[in-house]
Each structure stands twice: as C-alpha cells, then as structure tokens.
Write a structure and sequence with these properties.
Length: about 170
C-alpha cells in the first residue's frame, strides 16, 4: 500500500475511533480536543510503520515532530516530549518492513510506551508517590489513546498484506 492509502485509512479509522468513543460515552460529545487527539493518534500510527524509509512523508513527519517538541518543551510537558522523541525515532532503528511490520509490534510497543507514560503521570499526579493502585485511575482516561494506537497500526499492517484472511492453496490447482 502506498502513503495515500495509509493516509486515507488512518483518517477513516481515526474518525471512527473518535466517533465510537464519543457515542459509547468515553469521550464527551463536547470535548472536541480529545476527539481530534484520538483521531490524530490513530492517523499517526497508521502512517508510523513506513517512517523508516526516506520519503516526503518522512520529512514532513520530522518537521511536525520538531515543532511539536518545541511546543511541548515550551509548555513544560517534558515527559510527553520525551515520549514523542522516543516514538519518532523508533522506525529508524531497523530497515524498511522490519520490526515495525511485525504482527505483535502494535500491541507490545503501544502497551509499553503507554505504561511508561502512565508511570510518569502517576509519579507527578500523586506528589511523587507512585503506587500501582493509582495507575488505574489515570489509565481510565487514556485507554482510548492506546486503542487508537493499536487500531491505526494494525490498519497499516492489514493494508500491507501482513494478515491473510483468505489464504490460497498454492500446492493444488
């Protein structure tokens, strides 16, 4: 699949995630900021696996990351800036269609990064006192983002043919 296909699917999945979460009551119907953020998260992860190849989308991506990091630093959101920086470099750690196209990567990477972010948030939200019991309260407000990450990424893998729903029998004609 090409960039435009992944872009279109990311937009569709992102809007679907936001609409679904809103209709199910996980996002307020008047909370446009969160709706857009959930849509953008799914879109980002629908494009994410192909950021490992030098291209126009990759250059635009790093331009956007640059300004996002400036904004996050300016507003004092250092933990989120660190997470964005780490995530943006991950595709560059391997070759095209490397680990970013493994079937398990969306689950493992999304859950791991989400856990790190929630740990940082829990540490600061509760005056430096981290307790696993407090994490559940924080996760409840952010699980929609985790779902958007996973849905966007798996959409990419699906469109790249990583899942064969109708396997062909190559040995018999």
């Amino acid at each position: 699949m090409n960039f435009k296909g992944h872009l279109c699917s990311g937009v569709i999945v992102g809007i679907g995630m936001a609409v679904g979460a809103t209709r199910l009551g996980y996002i307020g119907s008047d909370d446009l900021t969160t709706q857009v953020a959930v849509s953008a998260t799914a879109l980002f992860f629908a494009l994410f696996p192909d950021l490992d190849t030098s291209s126009v989308p990759q250059r635009w991506f790093f331009r956007i990351v640059f300004f996002a990091l400036l904004y996050l630093g300016w507003t004092g959101r250092y933990e989120l800036a660190t997470l964005v920086g780490i995530v943006s470099l991950l595709p560059l750690l391997d070759h095209h269609r490397g680990w970013t196209h493994w079937k398990i990567s969306p689950l493992v990477v999304s859950v791991l990064l989400g856990a790190i972010y929630e740990y940082w948030r829990a540490r600061h939200a509760f005056m430096g006192e981290f307790a696993w019991g407090n994490v559940r309260a924080l996760i409840e407000g952010h699980w929609v983002f985790l779902a958007a990450c996973i849905a966007g990424w798996y959409t990419h893998l699906l469109l790249d043919g990583r899942f064969k729903f109708f396997p062909t029998d190559q040995g018999h004609h």
